[in-house]
From TrEMBL:
Spans traversing the lipid bilayer: 7-25, 31-48, 68-87, 99-119, 131-153, 165-183, 204-223, 229-253, 274-300
One Pfam family hit: SBF_like
GO cellular component terms, A-Z: plasma membrane
Species this chain originates from: Stutzerimonas nosocomialis
Keywords noted in UniProt: Membrane, Transmembrane, Transmembrane helix
Signal peptide: none
Protein name: Bile acid:sodium symporter
InterPro entries in the record: Na+/solute_symporter_sf, Put_Na-Bile_cotransptr
Transmembrane helix among keywords: yes
PANTHER family for the chain: SODIUM_BILE ACID COTRANSPORTER 7 (PTHR18640:SF5), SOLUTE CARRIER FAMILY 10 MEMBER 7 (PTHR18640)
Highest taxon in the source lineage: Bacteria
Coiled coil: none
Length: 330
């Protein structure tokens, strides 16, 4: 039961509940307009809290490990997109054209922050470097992901302009984040004391975006066009993509001579994709009716990566304490 609880936590169950409710009680008409405004406010609050929670001291502590950071960025923003394109002959027939676009969007996203750091800490990896890499990946992704979306998917969202899309993302995501960093001087201690309670605010924002996105998909009738075989194929595709990325990140870490602690950081920071960033960003980049299909691969991949990385982190945590033969390269 404990292992089952680890794989399916309260947030995962809440996500499944929201997906189940959306087809029965979708938001339409004026309700949809209200939820779109509410979602925009929730996204701003989400990134404001991210900025308020992130310690600049912790980021600076790992900032000097530039070779590891570059490799994490390479895995996140180069290797993932290349794999998405290279696997097209396999993935497109397996999941269908619409869900394959969602797979490409998944490949363009930045890495996670919270879970990458949590798993690195559990596995006794280089936590300061994980904090720096994951935080920088999220910030870089605000600018880089829209460009990658254009290059990979050949579309430019609702705005018709990549620069306009970046501007909207900066206004809705980066500005609240920076405001949170500035406000941390006054509210940082309060945020730290109430971290567990504020986690509910983060998760509620994501649930709201998911409900709005899936409601739009239901209203447009998109779910009627997705066969069950494609959904099963999507699960297989996500497992295949994650397995390849985990193997490649592990291989690159060994070939480049990183220490075990740094390889652990690379494994967890370079193989994960951010649901917390990806869902709100999709709301900005794509039409409301298309968001549900776009984020479905991300939601499934997110759960699979959590389950697999939980097992890997526990395995690393049980390893014997052995001194490294040489210091990690800088």
């Amino acid at each position: 039961m404990a292992k089952l609880r680890l794989l399916f936590d309260n947030f995962t169950l809440a996500l499944l509940a929201v997906i189940a409710i959306a087809p029965v009680l979708p938001c339409e008409g004026r309700g949809a307009v209200f939820f779109e405004w509410l979602t925009a406010l929730a996204i701003g609050l989400l990134f404001f809290m991210h900025g308020a929670k992130l310690s600049r001291e912790a980021i600076l502590a790992g900032a000097g490990h530039w070779r590891l950071h570059l490799l994490v960025f390479f895995c996140t923003f180069v290797m993932f997109p290349l794999l998405g394109l290279a696997l097209r002959p396999v993935l497109a027939p397996l999941v269908g054209a619409e869900l394959y676009l969602g797979m490409l969007y998944l490949c363009a996203l930045p890495a996670t922050v919270q879970s990458a750091i949590a798993f690195t800490s559990l596995a006794r990896g280089n936590v300061p470097a994980a904090i720096c890499s994951a935080a920088a990946s999220s910030l870089i992704g605000i600018f880089l992901t829209p460009v990658l979306v254009l290059l990979l998917m050949g579309i430019e969202g609702d705005t018709g302009s990549t620069l306009d899309s970046i501007g909207r993302i900066v206004l809705q995501l980066l500005v609240p984040f920076v405001a949170g960093q500035v406000a941390r001087r006054w509210i940082g201690a309060w945020v730290t004391r109430n971290r567990n309670w504020l986690k509910t605010v983060d998760q509620s924002s994501i649930l709201l975006v998911v409900y709005t996105a899936f409601s739009g998909a239901v209203v447009e009738g998109l779910w009627q066009t997705v066969p069950l075989v494609n959904l099963l194929g999507l699960a297989l595709a996500c497992c295949l993509l994650l397995a390849l990325v985990l193997w490649l990140t592990s291989l690159l870490g060994r070939l480049l001579g990183f220490s075990l602690e740094d390889r652990i950081t690379l494994l967890f920071a370079g193989s994960k994709k951010s649901l917390a960033t990806g869902v709100p960003m999709a709301q900005v980049l794509f039409a409301t009716s298309a968001v549900g299909m776009i984020i479905l691969p991300l939601m499934l991949f997110h759960q699979i990566q959590l389950m697999v990385c939980a097992v890997l982190a526990q395995r690393y945590a049980r390893r014997d304490e052995a001194p490294e033969a040489s210091p990690s390269p800088r």
